[in-house]
Amino acid sequence: MTFFLALIAATSSSTGAALAFTGLKPLAILMPGAGGPVSSDFVMRNRNLFRQAGFDTKVITIPRAAANAANSHSDRRKVFLIGVDRGANQVAAALALGAQVDAAVMLSGDYGEAMQTLMSPALLPDTLVVHHRGDRCGQTPAAQASAFAAWSRGKAKLVWMSMSGMPDRNPCGPFGAHGFYFNDAEPVSAVIRFLRAQ
Predict the structure, then answer these.
(1) What are 58-108's pLDDT values in tens digits?
(2) Crossing angle, helix 142-151 and helix 111-118, to 10 degrees?
(3) Which residue range(s) make up the domain with 92?
(4) Residue 84 is part of a domain; what is its CATH number?
(5) Would you say the pTM of this structure is higher than 0.70?
(6) Residues 6+ apart with CB under 8 A from 20
(7) Assigned domain for 40 exists
(8) Who contacts 51 (Cβ-Cβ below 8 Å, separation ≥6)?
(9) Domain count, the chain
(10) Quick one: DSSP state of residue 73?
(11) Is residue 52 part of a domain?
């Protein structure tokens, strides 16, 4: 709790720069994983922290709807896409559908599928990739995160996580390395720092 209070205090000092865009708070469009917008999902369980750090948030599970929402706001304020697990690939799909955003964040994604969806790194905005080195989900191997960063031609910044925790019987679920063992301080901090720099 102490960490998160310090994080919010640190990021609030830079809120003025973000709000200078039009006077509106930046919008973070959150795209949860395959389980949907449930409380255990990374973007859902940290939604209030993004709000407290100065972002408006909107949860969207359909790429076309995310692209439409992004484009309806992009002329008035900064807009970001943040997706975890299946949501990371929905971020890629929204970008392929023409979503105009200031930056994107992909966490624990299937980056092989993302590359196939995007077809070209030209469609990527500045992008943060957050992945756990010990991710055991067969659909999201750590090697794909490195391949995606190389494929992006400098548009994607890769940040590795290595926190430890109890193994989960479901390697693709939110409780193991794939979901950062519910040890969210480091990935949340990385995401907010990245968005604040945009």
Answers:
(1) 999 999 999 999 999 988 999 999 999 999 999 999 999 999 999 999 999
(2) 30
(3) 28-196
(4) 3.40.50.1820
(5) yes
(6) none
(7) yes
(8) 57
(9) 1
(10) H
(11) yes
